[in-house]
Amino acid sequence: MRLHPARAVATGFGLAVAAGTILLLLPIAKVGPGGATFVQALFTSTSAVCVTGLTVVDTATFWTPFGQVVILALIQLGGLGIMIFASLIGLILARKLSVRARLNTAAEAKSIGFDDVRGLVRGIVLISLVIEAATFAALFVRFLTGYGYSVGEAAWYGLFHAVSSFNNAGFALYTDNLIGFAQDPFICLPLCAAIILGGLGFPVIMQLRKEFRRPLHWSMNTKLVLWGTVVLLIGGTVYITAIEWNNPDTIGGMDPWGRILTGFFQSVQTRTAGFNSVDIGAMRDETWLGMDVLMFIGGGPAGTAGGIKVTTFAVLFFIMMTELRGEGAVNIFGKRLSRAVHRQAITVVLVAVAAVVVGALLLMLLTGENLDRAMFETISAFATVGLSTGITADLPETAQLVLVVLMFLGRLGPLTLGSAIALRDRRILYELPKERPAIG
Length: 440
Hints:
The protein is an all-alpha fold. The protein has one domain. The protein has 18 helices and 2 strands. It has a two-stranded antiparallel sheet. Helix 1 crosses helix 6 (99-109). 49% of the residues are buried.
C-alpha cells in the first residue's frame, strides 16, 4: 500500500517519535537507577523530533550523555525532516530516488516540483551543516576562552547548542537554560543568528544563496518571509524590552545594553526557538500576551520554525488591506495572489486557533491553571517554541499528553496532518448557486 505524501510525512514523524521514546526508556539514558517513565520519554522524544524544546525533566541532570546524544540526534532528524533524511540515505546508498521518494520529500519541503529533489536534499543538508558548523565554531571558542571549559567540554556544549539553535529546538544543557549567559553577546548573538536563519526556511535560504544580489528575482515567498521577519523581530524587541524595562525579576537590574540584548534575544526565541535568558515565569502578563502573538505567527515555511508561519500571517494582512481598500484582487509586491492561497491561509489559521483554544481549555480543566499560563504553554507547544512559564514539569501526565499532541500537530502543520488523515481527495464535478450572507 502506497501512502499519500502527506500521510508518509506524518507516519515518518510518528515512527521517529516512537524510536526516540524507546531509546530514552533505556536505563542507560537516565542518570541514576531505573529508567525514565513512559510519559517522560514520550514527551522528550516528541519535543526533540518536533524541535520544540519543552521539557518535563532537566535535560542537563536527568539524562546521561547517551540520552543527550539521542536527544541531539532527534533534534537534527526533526529539523532536517524525516523524508529529507530518508532521501539523503537513499542518495548515499543507491545514488538515486524513486518517484515516490521524490513526492514525499517535495511534500515535506513544500517544493513546487520534484524533478530537482536530489539537488534540494543536497542543498538543505549542506546549508544545515554549514550554519551549524559556523555556530559551533563561535560557541566553541567562547566556551574555551571565556569560561575555562576543557576542549572536550567546549566542543560538546558548542555542538549541542549549535544544532539546537539552528533547528529552533531550544534544548539547553544548563539547568537554568541560558540565564547565565543573558548579557554575553558572544553566546547570545551566534545563537540568535542560527535561529533566525533556521526560521527563514530552506526555500528562502536557497534562493538568497543563488540570487542575493538580485532582489528583483526573489519570489513572493522570499520577500514576505524577509519583510515579515524584520518587522516581527524589531517589533518584538521593542515591545518586550519596553514592557520589561523596569521589571527587577527579569531585565530591570541590567545595564541598558544588557536589557536591549536580552529583549532582542527573547524576541528571537519567539521565532520558535525556546531558549530563555531570563525567567519567563517572572515576566509581566502583558509581555506574555505579546509573546503569545509572536509565537503563534512563528517563522518561515519549510524550515525549522513552527507557528502558522510568517507568510500565512502576511497573506491574511494583505487580504484585509485589499478588502478595506475595496479592491478585487490581492496584489503583493507587484504580483497577484492566487485565490487558492486565500483558502489555505484561512484554513491554517482557523485550525490553529481551534487547536490552541481547545488545548488551553483542557489544560485549565486538568490543572486549574489560569488562562494566561495555560494559553502561553499551549501556544508554545503548538507553535513548537519551547518557552514555558515554568509549569510544564509540574503538570499531571494527562496535561503533558495534551501538549504532546499539540507539538506533533504543530510540527506537521494543520493542513499536512489533515490531508494525511483524509481517506482520499474529494473532487466535486458540479457547483452550487452563489449567495452572499451578511458579514460583520
